[in-house]
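Case study: 7-carboxy-7-deazaguanine synthase.
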Amino acid sequence: MYRVKEAFYTLQGEGAQAGRAAVFCRFSKCNLWTGREKDRAGAVCDFCDTDFVGTDGQNGGRFETPEALATHIHNLWPAAPGTPYVVCTGGEPLLQLDKLLIDAFHGAGFEIGVETNGTLAAPDGIDWLCVSPKADAEVVITECDELKLVYPQPLAPPEQFLGIRARHYFLSPMASPSVPEQGDDPVKRSNTRKATDYCLAHPQWRLTLQMHKILGID
Ligand code: SF4
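Here is what the predicted structure looks like once written out:
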C-alpha cells in the first residue's frame, strides 16, 4: 500500500532540474516530524513548510499496487512529446518508494527524481537523487546527483556534507514556516543574503531559489 498526500503536474522549481516539467508525487509521512504543529518544537526537523499528513490532497490517495500508482501518475502527464518525469517527494519518500514502484514508474516511461532527507537507504534505479540533510539527522546516503542544503541550519553547516559525493552542491535559503507562500518573509530575505554571502566565499556551492514560489505557480 502506497500513501500519497497529493500529486500534481508543474515545473520543478529548484536545483539543477529547475524549469523541467514534472509530476510531483508527494508521499505521506516523514521520519523527522509527525507533521502536526503540536510536535514541531520537539521534532528533529522543525522548519518544514509542507503538509504531508494523510492522503486527502489534490490527486492524493491510497494505492494498493505499484502499477496502480504508476498509472495514476501517468494520467497526470500530458499527451505531448518529452520524457515523462516524476519527482518523488514528501514527507520522506524513501519510507515508501521501493524497487517495485521504481520498476512500475520506469515501465510507464518515467524518469524518476527523488528528494530525500538522506537518512534512509535509497533503492537502485533512481535517475536523479537529491539529498537535503536536516539538522543533526544522520545522512546515510554517500553519493547523489545534487546535495541541496536548506541554509542556515545551526546543526547542519555546509562544510559537514562535502564528504557526500554530488554533481551539484546547492544552498536554499530557509523560509519562515509560518509565512504564506506568496507573503513577504523578512526571515527568508535575510537568509537569502546569508546564503549568497556563503556561496561567494565558497564557490563550490551554488544558490538555488524556489522559482515556483517566486512565480506563484503550484
Ligand atoms: S525532512 Fe523534509 S518533509 Fe520531513 S519534516 Fe523536514 S522538511 Fe518536512
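For the exam, be able to explain this: Residues 186-201 form the longest helix (16 residues).
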